Amino acid sequence: MKIGDRVRLPPTLSQPGGEYRIVALDDNDVHLISTKGWVKRSVARDQLAVLAARGTPASTTALAADAFPRDEGVLSRSGYHVGAAAAMPAINRQIVLRRVFAMPAAKLPAGNDEAYRAEWGEDHSQRRLSKLARCLESFISVHLTRGHEYQRSIKEWKEDLQWLDEELGAPINTWFLSNS
Fold first, then answer.
1. Within the chain, what is the greatest distance between any pair of CA atoms?
2. Which run of H or E residues covers position 6?
């Protein structure tokens, strides 16, 4: 750990989560500033690794050799795409989301990765709804600090997350709707 290193930290009651850069080190603490530059944070040296582990989600399922790549997940294989390149109207994206919500688990396009398919739960289930919301929240979180080229994608993911909440009653984290 050295000055200039970046670390992803989870939110606390008083500090937002996100990517931080180490700006100073002393005997007991690590001093950080958010990559957006508006949040300063100090963390005890012995707690930084613990917090960083909580701030970086671990893969819940090991990928088998015959599994499809996760950059082509259930949503993209079902036709869900955002951003300027996709140029997909909100109604079309939301039709795809509704179809994935209603699709029988056995028909989900998850390749041979049965563990990944199981993460989605059964059609019309709370588990399926939660998975849809977590996917969109994850897309937003991953792309927040990647620059202006993702603004349209983030806006569309937020619209779809709001739609999931309003239309299907998805359990969403409203932080993703209010922050950009």
1. 56
2. strand 6-9
Residue 57 has pLDDT above 60, yes or no: no
The residue among 41, 48, 35, 50 whose CA lies nearest residue 13 is 41
Q: What percent of the chain has pLDDT over 70?
A: 83
Residues in the chain: 180
Assess contact for 153 and 142: CB atoms under 8 A.
no
DSSP readout, 14-69?
A: SS--EEEEEEEE-SSEEEEEETTSS-EEEEEHHHHHHHHHHHSPPPSSPPPTTSPP
Confidence band of 114 (pLDDT split at 50, 70, 90): confident
Is residue 120 within 8 A of residue 114, CB to CB? The reply is no
Q: What is the pTM of this model?
A: 0.60
Rg (CA), the chain: 18
User: Can you tell me the mean pLDDT for 158-175?
Assistant: 82
Q: What is the C-alpha separation between 161 and 94, in angstroms, rounded?
A: 10
18-42 pLDDT per residue, tens: 788 888 999 999 998 887 767 888 8
- What is the Cβ-side half-sphere exposure of residue 69, based on CA atoms within 13 angstroms? 2
